[in-house]
User: Fold this.
Amino acid sequence: MARISGIDLPKEKRIEVALTYIYGIGPNLSKKVLGKANVNPDIRVKNLKDDELARIQNIINSDNLKVEGDLRREISMNIKRLIDIGTYRGSRHRKGLPVRGQRTKTNSRTRKGPKKTVGSGRKKEE
Assistant:
């Protein structure tokens, strides 16, 4: 079982793709790490040797790449800072609305959640 930065990598995937399962490592960074570690990107995770796995782990640690918990913590602290100092972006985060200027009259259902229909406020009489 290949385990890097506390993440179990899928055995059947190519190492180039499997590294992207680690939060903070995308396709480009995955290629750079494999190039530095001198590991073939086409090899499957289950076929990796222990020394290759160790080289990949060392490069991720030695290059001071922020991955997983450290990166998540940093991002949440940045959002918390925006909220605390009362910026416009912080207020959008607090309200759960889109932060980067998108329209909200339509769309933005991911941030706002399912529709809440607003009625007249009184029940019909029978």
Summary: The longest strand covers residues 3-4.
